[in-house]
Automatic annotation (TrEMBL):
Catalytic activity from the UniProt record: Hydrolysis of terminal, non-reducing alpha-D-galactose residues in alpha-D-galactosides, including galactose oligosaccharides, galactomannans and galactolipids
MF annotations from Gene Ontology: alpha-galactosidase activity
Highest taxon in the source lineage: Bacteria
Protein name (Swiss-Prot/TrEMBL): Alpha-galactosidase
Keywords of the record: Glycosidase, Hydrolase
GO BP terms in the entry: carbohydrate catabolic process
InterPro entries xref list: Aldolase_TIM, Alpga-gal_N_sf, Alpha-glycosidase_related, GH, Glyco_hydro_27/36_CS, Glyco_hydro_36, Glyco_hydro_36_C, Glyco_hydro_36_N
Similarity remark: Belongs to the glycosyl hydrolase.
Residues that bind substrate: 190, 357-358, 437, 471-475, 520, 542
Domain Glycosyl hydrolase family 36 N-terminal: 38-278
E.C. designation(s): 3.2.1.22
Alphabetical list of Gene3D superfamilies matching this protein: Aldolase class I (3.20.20.70), alpha-galactosidase from lactobacil brevis (2.70.98.60), Golgi alpha-mannosidase II (2.60.40.1180)
Length: 728
């Protein structure tokens, strides 16, 4: 004890040089320059009350890092940004070949500086340098204090005479030491996005990545949860939730080594993407965004939601538009009359906007199906003789906003655009063109193509009043990809395409800063914080069957806030309109049904649900989310949102496919104030129907609701209960 006290005091007086503390309210990441000049991660976890403890930790770790007793310099286990080519035995964050052919890099700590950007955000930059070759690396760490989120990225720069080849260029490398590591990944495909799969990591390397080039998140969402020591729990245990803000190929690799240490490298997928870095130019990686929670995945999600609202998603603190979309009702088959009728339907329903989907453009090759017209962004005269301006005007007269679908990165071979610019598409020389949904990807590496895509949006915005909203789709991945523009630098394609897309979106955001846009990619093929800087929301999946949808929304809810996840009520599935609407209401609500097909009581129900949603949406969008019962654990799902001052909460309870007489137990609520009194009322009830929640209208203390709980689940297959909980 005395010894320990002495050690603490000693560390306090000799504040270690080169020790870097990156801290949020509850988390600390500690880096330390070793005597050998290399930089190590000595800690990532719960912030200590007393800083001096970190000095002890780094000493402790220095001992255990020595992998070869005979050689104290070989001390590479927890390097903050490990290099390839000298004595690293594991995954490297960076691998380069110098222009003299030397394939090695050493990065020594040079200096670091920390700047307080505002009262919540601090940025630390650590400068590393090779002692022999003029290569520099800057590690950036942005710490968001209140949200407990760290954003990490890297800059690589050199002053050699000729270009340096970059083979690996991770955004970050993190290290963990635990008994067990449980990884949750979010795997999927079209109509089954973001399915949660948890597995225990075994020795060796597990990789989650994408090689699709564009629409990159179709099979794997670029997110993961890592739980230390035991399976991930909603309310307890140590969890890292991480995601990459990059919309091209990504890669997370989890390497469990011979000492049971885990290293996670995150970044652009270097697969087929070696990068020629010119002297004096900086290669900047995308950001790896993560949070550490010592109270399970619920808190990790709330941290990320809070961060996304303020920093991660375009206009995260502004309201969203409820809408009626025509895709599932009409597909390509509509005309002016059908659309203007649907403006009135939107008004009847009470939503803010009508969203015109695919099929409105193309004249030489009218878009009567998915084989024609992509690229020709002029309204089809035979379908819409008065053009888009007329539709904007009519929607305005009806009192609804008007939004429109585009897919500006793509082209059908049957289009005027393709006929005019056959060299603007990605296609291999000497091989046949490779189609998917009868379309090709435009070459966004080419600045002329970037101009064209920008102009597509700009022209629509310059027509009459412009539109109030875009749905930006992307229905294929890259295959047989080759850019005529890039000539002999084809390995830059995946990166330069994504950068080209960001350039276009930057221009759009600058010229139209208040324009909301939905990100869509043939369902949820694009769900990343790289694009969400430019988009207010994303389309989670084309699968809108509410039973399936609960799982999809549950998956995305781990990383993305409710206001960003678009859910529409459609004719998928034969469940009641109430169940469909209640499921869609847990995120951003929209409709894609023929209002005229609804029975009178169904329409009335929908109108009331829209009105309830508008009354309560700030709680759903900006409140804290608590997942109470997971559909992965039971045949029901229960979650709730609570506003910041804990005066209002909304609870959604969905019953899925239980066995006969499931005897559901009471559900303990979370996030309320134990000392407050709350009235609990069932809302979203079908007209004339009896309320399903027997205690509707009763009042309880927060203490009771959180410790005893309520029986909020009906036992009937595919039914739902929505509760409004109000402080009295
Ligand atoms: C795929 C999207 O996911 C759908 O919502 C719809 O917009 C179609 N594309 C239109 O082609």
């Amino acid at each position: 004890m005395l010894l320990l006290l002495f050690a603490i005091l000693f560390c306090k007086v000799s504040a270690q040089e080169g020790q870097i503390q990156i801290e949020t309210q509850n988390t600390a990441l500690i880096l330390k320059a070793g005597k050998n000049g290399l930089l190590y991660q000595s800690y990532l976890g719960t912030k200590l009350k007393d800083n001096s403890g970190y000095n002890l930790l780094s000493k402790e770790n220095t001992k255990s890092f020595v992998i070869n007793d005979g050689n104290p310099l070989v001390n590479l286990r927890h390097q903050a940004y490990p290099t390839f080519g000298t004595d690293n035995l594991f995954e490297s964050a960076i691998r380069v070949t110098h222009n003299d052919g030397n394939p090695s890099l050493e990065l020594f700590y040079i200096s670091h500086q920390t700047e307080k950007i505002d009262s919540n955000v601090t940025e630390t930059i650590v400068n590393l340098k090779d002692p022999v070759y003029p290569v520099e690396v800057k590690l950036h760490y942005k710490a968001f204090y209140n949200e407990n989120v760290i954003e990490q990225w890297t800059e690589i720069l050199h002053h050699e005479k000729k270009p340096v080849m970059l083979y690996d260029y991770a955004s970050s490398m993190l290290h963990f030491d635990a008994d067990q590591y449980w990884l949750t990944q979010y795997h999927g495909d079209w109509a089954k996005e973001a399915r949660m799969q948890e597995s225990k990591l075994t020795s060796g390397t597990k990789v989650i990545d994408s090689k699709l080039g564009v629409r990159t998140d179709m099979y794997q969402t670029p997110v993961f949860l890592l739980s230390l020591n035991s399976k991930a729990d909603e309310n307890s245990g140590e969890i890292i939730a991480g995601t990459l803000a990059w919309s091209g190929n990504f890669k997370f690799s989890f390497e469990l080594d011979n000492k049971n240490s885990l290293r996670i490298s995150s970044g652009i997928n270097p697969y087929a993407s070696e990068y020629t870095l010119q002297p004096g130019k900086t290669f900047t990686t995308p950001s790896f965004i993560y949070t550490f929670s010592n109270k399970g995945k619920g808190l990790a999600s709330r941290n990320l939601h809070a961060w996304a609202r303020k920093y991660g998603i375009k206009d995260g603190e502004k309201p969203r538009l409820t809408l009626l979309n025509n895709w599932e009702t009409t597909f390509f088959n509509f005309d002016e009359k059908k659309l203007t009728d649907m403006f009135s339907d939107s008004k009847t329903l009470g939503v803010d906007m009508f969203l015109l989907d695919d099929g409105w453009f193309g004249n030489k090759y009218p878009r009567s199906g998915d084989k024609y017209g992509l690229g020709d962004w002029q309204a089809t005269r035979t379908k819409l003789p008065n053009g888009l301006g007329f539709l904007m005007q009519e929607a305005g007269k009806t009192g609804v906003k008007f939004g429109i679908w585009i897919e500006p990165e793509m082209v059908n071979p049957k289009s005027e655009l393709y006929e005019k610019h056959p060299d603007w598409v990605l296609k291999l020389p000497n091989r046949p063109e490779s189609y998917y949904r009868t379309q090709l990807v435009l070459d966004l590496c080419n600045p002329q193509v970037q101009d064209f895509v920008f102009k597509t949006v700009d022209d629509i915005m310059q027509t009459n009043t412009g539109v109030a909203f875009f749905k930006w789709d992307c229905n294929r991945m890259m295959t047989s990809a080759y850019s005529t523009y890039l000539k002999n630098q084809q390995s830059h394609l995946f990166i330069e395409y994504t950068n080209g897309l960001y350039k276009v979106l930057d221009r759009i955001k600058t010229k139209y800063p208040n324009l909301p846009m939905m990100l869509c990619a043939g369902g949820g093929g694009r769900t990343d914080y790289g694009l969400l800087k430019y988009f207010t929301e994303f389309w989670a999946s084309d699968n809108t069957d509410p039973f399936n949808r609960i799982f999809i929304q549950w998956g995305y809810s781990q990383f993305f806030p409710a206001f960003s996840i678009c859910n529409h009520v459609t004719s998928w599935g034969n469940q009641s309109i109430k169940f469909k609407t209640d499921v869609a209401m847990m995120g951003k609500l929209g409709f894609d049904i023929n209002i005229k097909d609804l029975k009178a009581d169904e329409l009335k129900y929908c109108q009331e649900a829209v009105a309830n949603y508008k009354r309560l949406n700030t709680v759903i969008w900006h409140g804290d989310m608590y997942r109470l019962i997971s559909p992965y654990d039971e045949s029901r799902a229960v979650l709730m949102y609570v506003n910041e001052i804990k005066s209002k909460a909304i609870l959604f309870s969905y019953t899925l496919h239980p066995l006969y007489d499931p005897q559901y137990t009471a559900v303990r609520l979370q996030g309320l104030d134990p000392d407050k009194m709350y009235k609990v009322e069932e809302i979203n009830v079908m007209p004339e129907a009896k309320k399903s929640f027997e205690q509707s209208g009763d009042s309880f203390t927060g203490d009771y609701l959180m410790n005893v709980g309520l029986r909020v689940s009906s036992s009937k297959v595919e039914t739902s209960i929505v509760l409004e909980i109000t402080e009295i």
